[in-house]
From TrEMBL, chain A:
NCBIfam families per UniProt: HEQRo_perm_3TM
Protein family membership: Belongs to the binding-protein-dependent transport system permease family. HisMQ subfamily.
Major localization listed first in the record, in broad terms: membrane
GO cellular component: ATP-binding cassette (ABC) transporter complex
Single GO BP term: amino acid transport
Membrane protein topology class: Multi-pass membrane protein
Official protein name in the record: Putative glutamine transport system permease protein GlnP
CDD domains for this protein: TM_PBP2 (cd06261)
GO molecular-function terms, A-Z: transmembrane transporter activity
Organism whose genome encodes this protein: Salinicola corii
From TrEMBL, chain B:
CDD domains: ABC_HisP_GlnQ
Pfam short name (any one): ABC_tran
InterPro entries registered for this protein in UniProt: AAA+_ATPase, ABC_ATPase_HisP-typ, ABC_transporter-like_ATP-bd, ABC_transporter-like_CS, MetN_ABC_transporter-like, P-loop_NTPase
Family of this protein: Belongs to the ABC transporter superfamily.
Membrane topology of the entry: Peripheral membrane protein
The protein's name in its UniProt record: Peptide ABC transporter ATP-binding protein
Molecular function, one GO term: ATP binding
PROSITE patterns: ABC_TRANSPORTER_1, ABC_TRANSPORTER_2
UniProt KW keywords: Amino-acid transport, ATP-binding, Cell membrane, Membrane, Nucleotide-binding, Transport
Localisation: Cell inner membrane
Domain named ABC transporter: residues: 20-257
Amino acid sequence: MEFNFQFDWQAAIDSLPFLLKGLPYTLLISFAGLAIGFVIGIVFGLMRIGPSRWIRWPAVVYVEVFRGTPVLVQVLFIFYGLPTLLGGPIDALTAGIAAIALNAGAYISEIVRGGVQSIERGQREAGLSLGLSPPQTFRYVIWPQALRRMIPALGNQGIVSIKDTSLFSVIGVGELVRQGQVYIANTFTALEVYFMIALLYLAITLSLSLALSLLERKGLVG
Amino acid sequence: MNDSANRQETAQSSGSSPIVRLEGVNKHFGRLHVMQDIDLSVAQGEVVVIIGASGSGKSTLIRCVNGLEPFQSGRIEVDGKTLLPNGASGKSLQAVRTEVGMVFQQFNLFPHLSIRDNVTLAPRKVRGMTRRQANAIADRLLERVGISDQADKHPTQLSGGQQQRVALARALAMEPRLMLFDEPTSALDPEMIGEVLDAMRELVNDGMTMMIVTHEMGFAREVADRVVFVHGGQIVEQGPPDQLFDQPRHERTQAFLSRVLKH
């Protein structure tokens, strides 16, 4: 048996075209999931600070359930479990997007709640005292400030969710990790391929970090 | 009884019906009875200064007038609209707030908006003005309070005194019929108090109806038509400033004034 401790750069580069076929899936699941998760997060985050317990309670249950269970279990449940309830198969991509949306939505609910609650009470009072309605006060006074404060935490969640999509190789979504596994099965270049996969994730998450820090800086000045 | 006679006298002497009328207003914070059967009227054009120790309920009183504090019984009439106990005011709540401006101790400017947009937000969103119409009003008001060269800056770039003058301009942009001031100079450095009081003085000269909670006794004596002393959630004594400051009848008023006027 021969061991090769050499890192084969050529093998790494050769794997790239095949790996890149997985990139659109990784990006699609990440961004579609996060976009839906953001909407869910706003709705449930605001419900959590709602005026009646009948509004707050469902939001608490949702957050606790989807924050308190692993995203891998969630996607397995959606992909393998739900079809027996629904009576028809769910396609793997949809299952992946749904799992990211529901999981990120739970965390984003908490981010939204924290962001809105962090705005001083005087801001609301000033808006109301000027004759703005409560919804107008929220939209023009509270929300813009809260959103700005939420950016770092939202960025964190985005990065976590992007990485979570790597788990969906188990349900056969042809994302980065899945593509890598298929490629390795034929070439036995695990070292090089997983290294390249790691680099690709890093490229995505660093771009997001950079974009958010630009947004944050602009927000602080503007 | 003296007090109520006094109040009616004041209201009549200014020759118009009251713009604000509180009748038997009670408010509790848990077990604390922070407003006890408050009766108070303010005539149009009158300047009423409310004094009292901290925790006496004086801020709570004016915050009830624009519905920022709910109350448990009684009624408040502002410019013909009625505020009811336990948040049952419905539409009249926003109607009242549109007619009543307020300046807060902590300024409460909107930090994400420029100075100009702080002033124009409510005229645009509540009155439906175009940005151009609202900007014209904002520029006029900012010039009046001496901030016109700062209109494009953000609140945090201004001094406390400047911020409070912007807050005043912001409230005036809605052309209120009544202005409430909740300790407008208490959060300011001493050297900035004068500029805010000057801006308020100008408003008094314009005939604005004002309810002012303040610890500035000299200012109170100078601008007030009537001074109201509040203690323990009750109106203990009220009258023209000379009378209340020089010949307070109630021992609580005497005790309070001897403490605040000494230094």
